[in-house]
Design brief:
Blueprint (H helix, E strand, L loop, with lengths): L1 H19 L2 H23 L4 H8 L3 H4 L3 H27 L6 H29 L6 H25 L8 H31 L1
Helix pairs in contact: 2-3, 5-6, 5-8, 6-7, 7-8
Bound molecules: 2-acetamido-2-deoxy-beta-D-glucopyranose.
Family: Belongs to the PMEI family.
Keywords: Apoplast, Disulfide bond, Secreted, Signal
Pfam family, one: PMEI
Length: 200
Amino acid sequence: MKKISSSFSMSAIFIIAMFTSPPCSAARKLLSSETDTAFIKTWCDSTSYPDLCFATFSSYAAEIKGSPQILATKSLFVALNTTRSASKSFNKLRKKQGLKTREAAALQDCVEEISDSFDEIKRSVAEMGESGGKSFAFRMSDVQTWASAALTDENTCMDGFSETAVDGAVKDKVRTVIEKVAHLTSISLSIVNRYAGAKN
Ligand SMILES: *[C@@H]1O[C@H](CO)[C@@H](O)[C@H](O)[C@H]1NC(C)=O
């Protein structure tokens, strides 16, 4: 009997504390931010690059709020923006003096592939944002098609710079840039795939 009443008074104190102390809303906020972050972690873990994924999207956790749709859209925008800046760096690199013929040719190919990739991700983003007309499944299939075409182009660029004939600093720079783009596109594609599959 004593035990029950003491635990009763403990809960009473807890309840009073819950309703009177201001940190309560802060605690609730903390709890929901943990849930939002856990959601990002779970989705990132099912991609091929969980660490890069989490590093990229955890800062958007509060905005994404556990919504697969917002995460999928955000991931496409991140891929799009990274592709845009890759395109800028490649164009800058291309103007560098003293490029070997072979490097210049591989770089030229990459500039074209990355430009195609940018257009494809843009189409993917546009499909994602469509609301009327097509069914969800049909629209998502277009989103997937364009994102996967973009990834193919990025991999083609990467392959051109994997050959041993192309060597040195330019190769390292291009590989670093294209790898990031390709990994972020791959992450976006797996998020989109999972989102599309979950809704079907
Ligand atoms: C992508 O770039 C646009 C334009 O610069 C910017 O408004 C947007 O916030 C960026 N999105 C992400 C997810 O980086």
